[in-house]
Amino acid sequence: MPDVRLNLINRSEHxxxxxxxxxxxxxxxxERQAVIAWRxxxxxxxxxxxxxxxxxxxxxxxxxSWGNYSPQKNAYPGQLFSVENDIDGDILKYSAQAxxxxxxxxxxxxxxxxxxxxxxxxxRLLFVQKGVSPGKKVxxxxxxxxxxxxxxxxxxxxxxxxxxxxxxxxxxxxLDIEITETTIRSADIIMTGGGSSTTxxxxxxxxxxxxxx
Length: 213
Description:
The chain is an all-beta fold. The chain is 2% helix and 52% strand.
């Protein structure tokens, strides 16, 4: 699927600095899960906008407790990767088809040592599963949707725990409503709400000017 072009537009009533954070859920994990701040936009004034793209292409890398990272590899739904030891050391390689055609899987086939499995898109960390023990497998499944919300003191690539995110986000589907297996071409993400008086409301997000393929 091609990239989805998005434009975040601040139409809120708020005039102070806020952080708009965007990420994705791993659909194989419980609803309350730690996530990654994939994109963070700092906005202060109504009328500001931030253009960015959401690529469908994913990359995978693994890391160990010493801070060593494997080179990133293209990862597509339906692929199983394994971490193994060979004469050059620990390597990440494509191994076989995954159990699900919709999932990216990683199995730790090392004798010793847990690994972290990292998923990237657009050159940024999208999701991480920490502490995958030898013999264990992690499964990633991402739907064409993003979560978006206003949070405080968040940096791109950092973990956001479930308690911090709970109730503070909106799910936005990037699927074409007429052709459900196809993503949209582009859309504006409109941010409303906020304010600093007794009439202030919670921040809300919705799509406008949706252009399908």
